[in-house]
Amino acid sequence: MSKRFGAVRAVDDVSLELKKGEFFSLLGPSGCGKTTMLRLAAGFEVPDAGRVFLDGRDITDLPPNKRPVNTVFQSYALFPHMTVRDNIAFGLTVAKRPKREVRDEVDRMLRLIRMEDQADKKPDQLSGGQRQRVAVARALVNRPRVLLLDEPLAALDLKLRQKMLIELDLVHDEVGITFLYVTHDQAEAMSLSDRIAVMDGGRIEQVGAPAEIYESPRTGFVAAFIGDTNFLEGRVRECPEADYCRLEIAGLGEAASFNDRQVRPEQAVVLSVRPEKIHIAHDRPEDAPRRNGFPAEVEDVIYLGASTKYWVRAGDHRVQVLRQHSRYFYDDRPIRWKDRVWIWWHADDGFMLEGVKSPQ
After folding, report:
1. Which residues of the chain have pLDDT under 50?
2. Which end of the chain is more exposed for a tag (fewer CB within 10 A), N or C?
């Protein structure tokens, strides 16, 4: 499927299939094409090429009001003059459903979003989170086959957003329909989704489960966009074992890496290592098979409560390290600015990206 706006190719030959009942997220930076994908699914945009199918039925030419899908917008789009109950009932009322059915379905939705005691309030009497719950209930009351959510939590503050993530997940588990969720927030996508499509420049870079995308990104863009990582450019020296290679990292030295890309000697690669995979200590670690260890100097320290983030200079590289705090000892020697330290990681904890320049 493709969609162009003037000279901009918002969606560039994308093919995507959602599984029935899954929570699927489109994730990427602003302008990557994710909202256009959602609007194509909703019928608000018509593709220049390609078709939209739902349960095997071609719905490309159906207008939005004829498609068995509903959309929840970032702005909530509630009717300010209507009560919570009337807002939720709106779609059923327009469809001229029997009054008893409307009442029963609205009561069911009020129980689902836990707002029975707020049914007679107007939207301006509700908090942002409550208004969002009403918007979700209004979209679900017609029992659509797919619920489309366009950055629905972007207007909420951090703590309320975190609470709403849990509530959205519970609602999805309760109703069991397919959710297509658009967001630029990686934490939202990672915590909610069964699968994620990471988009950039109108194309899909990778589709997979959250753990798969985080632990085994296919491209430098995915590795950089999902979480923090360190990129170390180098070249493959040798692959003495089928599953492991020795790399020469420019400005650092030799490092071992799991050969999940089946690279060959002399290939240029970028080694990506997540900060939480790297250990840090004052003392040099004991030698161990496939352990990569390097001396370094601490350039910055940020205490985060549950963890401490370090930036260290190892050779020519500024490396980020995240150290989790499982316990605290007052007599433990802290790592401070300008300390000489050692960093190390296991070969299995890095992943190679072929033929790309470091995104950093």
Report:
1. 355
2. C
Distances (CA, A) of 39 to 34, 35, 64, 167: 9, 6, 9, 24
Domain count, the chain: 2
| Cα of 203 vs its chain's centroid, Å | 16
Residue 357: what pLDDT? 52
Q: How many CB atoms lie within 10 A of CB 208?
A: 18
Residue 360 lies in a domain: no
Report the SS3 class of residue 344: strand
Integer Cα distance of 18 and 35 in angstroms:
16
Query: How far apart are alpha carbons 72 and 168 in whole angstroms?
Result: 12
Residue 179 near residue 167 (C-beta atoms within 8 A): no
Q: Are residues 19 and 120 in the same domain?
A: yes
Could you list the residue range(s) of the whole structural domain that residue 29 is in?
A: 3-219
Please report, as a single letter, which amino acid is at residue 257. S
Q: Give exposure, 146-173, as e/b (b: 16+ Cβ within 10 Å).
A: bbbbbbbbeebeeebbeebbebbeebbe
Distance between CA atoms of residues 52 and 46, nearest Å: 9
Same domain assignment for residues 198 and 304: no
Q: What share of the chain is helix, strand, coil (3-state, %, to 5)?
A: 30, 35, 40
Do 36 and 185 contact (CB within 8 A), yes or no?
no
Co-location of 96 and 204 in the same domain: yes
Same domain? For 173 and 272 the reply is: no
Question: pLDDT digit string (tens) for 276-324?
Answer: 999 999 999 998 889 999 999 999 999 998 899 999 999 999 999 999 9
